[in-house]
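Researcher: Here's the sequence for the chain we discussed earlier.
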Amino acid sequence: MAIFKVTKEKAIQSDRADFFQNEFELRDFFAKNLEELLGVKFLDKEHQISEGRIDTLGIDEDGSPVIIEYKWNEDDGILTQGQFYYSWLLENKRHFELLVESKSKEHIDINWDRPRVILVAQGFSRRIRGAVKHIDYVELVAYSFYKPDTLYLEGVDSSQGKISSSPVNESGEAKIYDKDYHFSLVNSEKIKEKAELIRKKVIELPDVEEILGQSTGITYKSTRKFVRFEFKATYIQILLKNPTYQKDGKKIVEDITKHGWGYDGKIKFTTESDIDYVFEIIKEAYEQTQ
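Model: Thanks. This is the structure I predict for it:
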């Protein structure tokens, strides 16, 4: 992608450069700025396990564990590495929970529905992009640096045709946490109708992904997660990244910062809620990720 410096009369293309001299510089820079760059709370880097070291471990706004692996340039081995560490994570949940307890000053509820692997590199081969289309827990992030001081991150579109994994209960049946499952938790048909209207508005925003497969709710993201719907019997809890928004003149967003890591704002969406008003707040949260 071309990046331009502009004046009222002229566009000058910025030159690409190698800001990171090696993979270690890349890893350490991301580790220091993980929340700003990827929306992930940093836990540890170069985390030692029996068969290697995980570049970065973190946890996202939904409380989902996140593994991040870096390559300074294109390297197909990054996918195999990420998959191996993902398997290790699922087999060592208590290890991760103890790490969170030791590294975080605040209480964090860990959500094991959708752990993620984020692979970061300057680019990815066609083989990697093709393979990831069918692996629902892996995300690709390509980075570019432009002189003098611009870092550009681009999520590689690999969501088409992904096969979503589903938790399996004791009887061996797969539990499907899709939209119908979450809407079935709400008793009021009016709330369901209003929720569907606001949902459609959200997914019509450019480059928004609807993240299903979680027992606790539905999350929406662009470059980062910006809103989450959690479904209750008589209302829908809408969680937002920040506690205040300029569009919220009525002050319907409740500040829940004291709850710790995750979302800092909450709206109680009921039969009386104004769809357009609530959507404008959600849209502001979305725009803050752009």
